[in-house]
């Protein structure tokens, strides 16, 4: 299992690289902008707590791409270069193979996500009081981003189990939240249901559908004969 | 030495023929060990069962004998036995030539004359070398 | 720890069939290969050799029929059985970003019976540079690496799908050498499909000929070659052949000359012909595997 994890890590190294570059790059960028404004206007335009909340929140937005790529590449990357066919006749069972992929992609995804969450929720308050606007901003952005990430990953992962390439699987992943949003907006517009809170429905359904897609894709992969 | 897998002559027979001619020519003398089954199989790139079949037939002929734990050795009268076999092979070759002549509708005198010519030419060539 | 249940045949199929739409790529294939046998699987391009092997390896779903390797149903793709089987495919898709040392380490950790010493010997024998990435290896080197992976864990069963196709004669020799070392171990079963009939003639105990998905022949290599002969008959004028003797797999009549290839030849076949037809002359010749193979296929095509 250890070597499988190493192998899956190496396959995803570029995506993970993007994720880490964004993580560190954005942190540096936000800090640099804040310092620049401070120096330029000779006053604290963005206090540290607010800068860190924005850093964490926008960071998560950038990591949506990381998450969808992790899901899309999970199985389909090996199908695109046909190395899946090589792996197929080696001893590891389908369960072992997919477990390794899940550990690497979900593990890496959770790690990166937690770092940004830690910046926005944990480190920011340590540097001072977060302003009201930013608390509201954080409270509305981060849950949406998190549930969207779950849907993105789940859909891309599911597509990855049968798509011929990781590009297609990633595309399907990206389309999923957009499709969900369109469907919900359509329901709201056409049927005009009472007390229809689009935001809540979107958040709930993204999580449910994301997890369902992940499970369905996993089961399909294990039962499928072709690599 | 290599065997010809495309030839209609079975490979075990080719191996047997080679060992017989090698013994007849004195490459392997009585009492000497011939290559082991595995060594021969790897050297010729053939299935060891095929080599085994060849060796079994040579053993039946009395050309070689097995010495337990050591391998296959040329028997004391192995060389003479091999030479007899070589003669038989030459006899077959002549027979084939004659049959080919008949199949081509050559009259018997022609076939004999052709043999005489070949005899002369080959001997001249050999003495020339 | 592997549990070794006893089995009669290393490879066993019964009525194995694969359909793509209407067409049967493999049609009702029944094979029984005993342990320790070297089975050469030959057939023209598209005959169904690779399809059969892929079904045996469990990477292609069969349409119907049964297939078992070492007594286990291939559809279960049991990890236990895969530990005991080595496979060399026709096309190689080993991770191109890995170095040879990575590949060897990766595969070594997946097989319980991986023999490090044998692995090192083969790396040296095949002259594989451990530091090179797979994408920088030549075709022949990749083939040798694939063979190394397949035999270094000392499998009971080795399956090779057109292993030497596209390889130059020197590499092919090295490759066969590597396979032979496995054959020289007791009770190792080998099944290989090949176009290079000389390879099959060298290594195979048993031969199977497949054509358009159907198995034409499945018998001992020796028996096939000694029992199949070409008869060349010159007939007297005005006569044309109508009924060939039993076991004729191919025939051609051209200008008084009737050539036939007869399976299960005996002097009775010639007697039959001499009694039935006005025969000028008869000649019987032995055939090599390539001729037998070609005649079988030509004979089948003539039936269509």
Written overview of the protein:
- The complex is a heterotrimer of chains A (227), B (129) and C (304).
- Chain A is an all-alpha fold.
- Chain A has one domain.
- In chain A, 85% of the residues lie in helices and 0% in strands.
- Chain A contains eight helices and no strands.
- Chain B has two domains: 69 residues, Arc Repressor Mutant, subunit A (Orthogonal Bundle); 41 residues.
- In chain B, strand 1 and strand 2 form a beta hairpin.
- The relative contact order of chain B is 0.11.
- With 304 residues, chain C is α/β, with parallel strands linked by helices.
- Chain C folds into two domains: 209 residues, P-loop containing nucleotide triphosphate hydrolases (Rossmann fold); 77 residues, Alpha-Beta Plaits, CATH 3.30.70.
- Helix content of chain C is 33%, strand content 30%.
- Chain C contains ten helices and 14 strands.
- In chain C, helix 5 runs parallel beside helix 6.
- Chain C is elongated and about 75 Å long.
- Chain C starts with 10 loop residues before the first strand and ends with a helix.
- The mean pLDDT of chain C is 91.
- The interface between B and C is medium-sized, with 20 and 28 residues.
- The number of helical segments of chain C is 10
Radius of gyration of chain B equals: 18 Å
- Count of individual helical segments of chain B: 5
Task: State the share of residues found in helices of chain C, binned by percent.
Answer: 25-40%
End-to-end CA span of chain B: 23 Å
In N-to-C order, the SSE pattern of chain B is HHHEEHH
CATH architecture group name of the largest domain in chain C = 3-Layer(aba) Sandwich
CATH H-level superfamily title of the largest domain in chain B = Winged helix-like DNA-binding domain superfamily/Winged helix DNA-binding domain
Determine the CATH topology of the largest domain in chain C. Rossmann fold
Biggest β-sheet description of chain C: 6 strands, mixed
CATH level-two architecture of the largest domain in chain B = Orthogonal Bundle
Low-confidence stretches of chain C: none
Mean pLDDT score of chain B: 88
Query: How are the strands ordered across the major sheet of chain B?
Result: 1-2
The shape of chain B is elongated
Number of strands of chain C: 14
Which pair of protein chains has the largest interface, and what are the residue counts?
B-C, 20 and 28 residues
Strand content of chain B: 5-15%
In CATH, the homologous superfamily of the largest domain in chain C goes by the name P-loop containing nucleotide triphosphate hydrolases
Any idea of the CATH topology of the largest domain in chain B?
Arc Repressor Mutant, subunit A
């Amino acid at each position: 299992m250890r070597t499988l994890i190493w192998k899956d890590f190496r396959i995803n190294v570029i995506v993970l690289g993007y994720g880490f570059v964004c993580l560190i790059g954005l942190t540096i960028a936000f800090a640099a902008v804040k310092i620049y404004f401070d120096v330029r206007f000779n006053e604290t335009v963005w206090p540290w707590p607010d800068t860190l909340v924005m850093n964490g929140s926008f960071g998560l937005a950038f990591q949506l791409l990381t998450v969808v790529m992790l899901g899309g590449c999970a199985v389909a990357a090996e199908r695109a270069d046909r190395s899946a066919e090589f792996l197929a006749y080696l001893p590891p069972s389908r369960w072992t193979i997919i477990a390794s992929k899940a550990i690497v992609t979900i593990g890496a995804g959770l790690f990166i996500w937690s770092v940004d969450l830690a910046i926005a929720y944990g480190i920011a308050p340590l540097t001072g009081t977060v302003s009201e606007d930013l608390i509201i901003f954080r409270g509305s952005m981060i849950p949406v981003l998190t549930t969207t990430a779950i849907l993105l990953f789940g859909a891309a992962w599911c597509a990855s189990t049968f798509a011929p390439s990781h590009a297609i699987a990633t595309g399907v992943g990206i389309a999923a939240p957009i499709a969900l949003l369109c469907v919900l907006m359509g329901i709201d517009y056409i049927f005009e249901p009472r007390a229809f809170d689009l935001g809540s429905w979107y958040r709930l359904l993204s999580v449910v559908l994301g997890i369902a897609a992940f499970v369905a894709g996993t089961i399909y992969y294990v039962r499928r004969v072709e690599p | 030495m290599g065997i010809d897998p495309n030839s209609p002559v079975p490979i075990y027979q080719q191996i047997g023929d080679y060992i017989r001619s090698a013994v007849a020519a004195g490459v392997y003398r009585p009492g000497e060990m011939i290559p082991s089954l595995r060594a021969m199989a790897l050297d010729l790139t053939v299935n060891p069962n095929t080599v085994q079949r060849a060796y079994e037939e040579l053993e039946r002929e009395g050309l070689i004998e097995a010495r337990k734990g050591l391998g296959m050795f040329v028997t004391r009268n192995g060389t003479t036995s091999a030479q007899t076999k070589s003669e038989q092979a030459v006899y077959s070759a002549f027979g084939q030539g004659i049959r080919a002549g008949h199949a081509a509708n050559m009259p018997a005198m022609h076939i004999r004359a052709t043999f005489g010519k070949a005899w002369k030419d080959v001997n001249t060539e050999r003495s020339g070398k | 720890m592997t549990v070794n249940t006893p089995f009669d045949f290393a490879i066993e199929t019964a009525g194995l069939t694969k359909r793509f739409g209407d067409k049967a790529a493999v049609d009702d294939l029944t094979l029984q290969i005993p342990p320790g046998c070297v089975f050469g699987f030959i057939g023209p391009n598209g005959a169904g050799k690779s399809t059969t092997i892929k079904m045996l390896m469990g990477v292609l779903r069969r349409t119907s029929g049964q297939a078992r390797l070492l007594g286990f149903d291939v559809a279960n793709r049991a990890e236990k059985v895969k530990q005991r089987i080595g496979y060399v495919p026709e096309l190689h898709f080993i991770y191109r970003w890995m170095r040879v040392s990575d590949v060897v380490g990766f595969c070594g950790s997946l097989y319980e019976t991986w023999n490090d010493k044998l692995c090192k010997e083969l790396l040296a024998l095949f002259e594989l540079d451990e530091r090179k990435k797979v994408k920088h290896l030549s075709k022949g080197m990749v083939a040798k690496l694939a063979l190394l992976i397949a035999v270094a864990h000392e499998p009971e069963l080795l399956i090779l799908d057109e292993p030497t196709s596209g390889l130059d004669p020197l590499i092919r020799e090295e490759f066969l050498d590597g396979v032979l070392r496995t054959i020289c171990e007791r009770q190792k079963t080998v099944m290989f499909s090949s176009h290079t009939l000389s390879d099959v003639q060298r290594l195979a105990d048993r031969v199977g000929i497949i054509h358009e998905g159907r198995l034409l022949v499945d018998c001992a290599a020796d028996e096939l070659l000694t029992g199949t002969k070409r008869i060349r008959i010159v007939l007297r004028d005005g006569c044309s052949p109508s009924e060939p003797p039993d076991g004729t797999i191919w025939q051609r009549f051209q200008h008084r000359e009737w050539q036939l290839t007869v399976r299960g030849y005996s002097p009775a076949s010639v007697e039959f012909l001499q009694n039935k037809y006005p025969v000028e002359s008869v000649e019987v010749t032995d055939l090599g595997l390539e001729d037998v193979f070609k005649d079988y296929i030509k004979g089948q095509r003539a039936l269509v």
